[in-house]
Amino acid sequence: MKTYTFINRLFPTLRLKAAAIVVCGTICGLGIYAAYASRAWSYLSDEPAVCMNCHVMAPYYATWNHSSHREHATCNDCHVPQDNALKKWVFKGTDGIRHAAAFTMRSEPQAIRAIDESAGVIMDNCIRCHTQLNSEFVNMGKIDYETAAAGGGKACWDCHRDVPHGGTNSLSSTPSALVPYPSSIVPEWLKSAKEKQEKQEKQF
Fold first, then answer.
1. Between the CA of residue 80 and those of 27, 94, 120, 181, what are the distances in Å?
2. Is 194 exposed, middle or buried (0-12, 13-18, 19+ CB in 10 A)?
3. What is the pTM of this model?
4. Domain limits of the chain?
5. For residue 182, how far is the Cα from the chain centroid?
6. 62, 177 in Cβ contact below 8 A?
């Protein structure tokens, strides 16, 4: 009863109620479409092909796919914390939102580089996977990224520059990379209409 009274006070007329329903419906509809268009559910998996939802990741997927790491590690094995599930999902969500915002606004750099938070995660995962090599065979110790960045040692990639992405990559470095791009969500009738319009424009 209190909820009903509150709604009546907020939207006293039928016109305001109808406008509120239209606005809420539009917001919900756009949210559902955005989730569908971005394949939001796919990010719940560890499948590397999910990274190809954003086409700017083509150089990184292609170089990983031709590296020895492909046989043993997915993108999430290296780029997401593995010490506990909560930390993994919080990091994955916040990093994903940051990436989505950059790619949507077209503000990504030509050569994408890990920010400090990501670099720390990557180095922790290098050490986690190569613990025996790092502590017994080469005995380099287990410094973290912050120590390396402060000059207290080297980060893993200071020596292993080509692992696993083959050195410096940019958006224009692998223009013909064969990667599993997701299928288009644009309906066929809209594609046909666009092609017809482009043909008409070329005639003039």
1. 31, 11, 10, 22
2. exposed
3. 0.72
4. 1-37, 47-203
5. 14
6. yes
Q: End-to-end CA distance of the chain: give it in Å, rounded.
A: 65
- Of 1.10.8.60, 3.40.50.2300, 1.10.10.10, 1.10.3820.10, the CATH number of 47-203 is 1.10.3820.10
Give per-residue pLDDT as tens, 30-52.
999 888 888 888 888 889 988 88
Q: If residue 31 lies in a helix (H) or strand (E), which one and from where to where? A: helix 14-37
pLDDT at 91: 94
- Report the sign of the C-alpha dihedral through residues 12, 16, 22, 24, in that order: negative
Cα(79)–Cα(186) distance, integer angstroms = 31
> Distance between CA atoms of 53 and 181, rounded to whole angstroms?
7
Q: Which amino acid is at 192?
A: S
CA atoms in the 13 A half-sphere facing the CB of 171: 11
